[in-house]
Amino acid sequence: MKTNSFARQVDYATALRLVRDRAARVMPPATRVPVARATGRVAAADIMARTCRPPADISAMDGYAFAHDAMVAHGRLPVAGRTVAGDAAISLAPGHARAILTGAHIPAGADCVMAAERMAVVDGTVAPTAPLPASGANIRRQGEEFASGTRLVAAGQRLDWRHVALLSSQGVGDVAVIRRPRVSVVSNGAELAADAPGACPDSNAPMLASMLTGIGARVTTHAAPTDNVARQAACLHAARRGADVMVTTGGISVGDTDHMLDILRDAGARVMFRGVAIRPGRPLTVLEHDGQTIFCLPGNPGAAAICALMFVWPYLRTIMGQDMPRPGVCATADFTADAPPGVTLFIPVSLHPGPQGWLCRRVPTVGASDIIAFSRADALLAVTQDSPIRAGQPAWGMPLRADM
């Protein structure tokens, strides 16, 4: 049976399950990077605390440390020295106070710290000028933040500045992270040639490179501005080298110049599924070849974007250990939409503040080739026969903006 037929079409849920199942069996190896350069990387393993924090009882402010009972009994105590952060722990002379700075070890025998601005120093003694705090006040206790052995970062966590601070506070110099998946993006078609009579700029490769780089992939782009089978095959062969994942756009429908699937099949690739019951994006096909996963996306930009968002993103997130889906956004629809039986329809919507939360409005689109609709949309709604959109009812969408 010719690969171009859609006899092996599956529904959206089945396609997504097949993609996720394959991803679950693929895990790029780990590598180590300096903590300072770990932002945006994904932890390859749990990271545990080496020590408790704070590592000892320390002062929460600049002031004076003393025994609470002694200050209550005498009202004023002589000052014996000063402790600063980094000094070794010492013992407090009985019946004395000691100047102390934020982060310094609490002297043994002291159980209270009072802010310097709330105390008066006269002739080498110190006395409160405000009500005395309770015993134990203004002392950060050993291990109150976390104990040694506490899990600080879970495997699969995408690291950012918060984790850099946390790990650096533990003296962690480098961290094991999942190697960035290497993705080759291939656009093809004679219309991409600069000298073609009906030349079209390539928007798919830059779009996909930006989209996939944004979730942590290392992306290289390749172009086969031709409908010549031999030249397209040579481009695909070059793009496959060193890649974990290959993403192609165009050339996968049933036209005379749609050669991608036959080229890949002839090279030994196995079709996982051919076509998905979605609109737009039906021609989407996924193959595997010698451990490499190949996503063949439609050439129309709108359809390519939806297929990448709904299939390539989940695949890459899973192989990077980030199997949690992006949180959805809930909004009240101001329109009604139904999907044909067995089809999942993806609708771009814009979000607007309403009296009781977000309102979503359908973004006008001319179909699979539409590229401006996405620049006007904030989320994507999935509509099925069993889950139609009804005006005035809540609808869940996939956010398209990074700040949502």
Characterise the protein shown here.
Helix 1 packs parallel to helix 7. The model has no long low-confidence stretch (mean pLDDT 92). A six-stranded mixed beta sheet has the order 7-4-6-5-9-8, covered by helices on one side. A six-stranded mixed beta sheet has the order 14-13-15-19-18-16, with helices on both faces. The protein has helices at residues 12-24, 68-74, 161-169, 204-213, 229-240, 260-266, 301-319, 372-376; strands at residues 30-34, 47-48, 58-59, 63-66, 77-83, 97-100, 112-115, 119-122, 125-128, 139-140, 151-153, 174-178, 182-188, 218-224, 245-249, 270-274, 278-279, 285-289, 292-297, 329-333, 344-354, 357-362, 379-383, 394-399. The chain folds into four domains: 12-28 and 180-319, Molybdenum Cofactor Biosythetic Enzyme, Chain A, CATH 3.40.980.10; 32-52 and 157-178, no CATH class; 58-140, Beta Complex (Molybdopterin biosynthesis moeA protein, domain 3), CATH 2.170.190; 329-399, Beta-clip, CATH 2.40.340. The longest helix is centred in the last third of the chain and has 19 residues, at 301-319. A hairpin with a 2-residue loop joins strand 18 (285-289) and strand 19 (292-297). The chain is 20% helix and 29% strand. With 404 residues, it is of the alpha+beta class. The chain is elongated, with a radius of gyration of 31 Å. The two termini are 45 Å apart. It catalyses: adenylyl-molybdopterin + molybdate = Mo-molybdopterin + AMP + H(+). Keywords: Magnesium, Metal-binding, Molybdenum, Molybdenum cofactor biosynthesis, Transferase. Its EC number is 2.10.1.1.
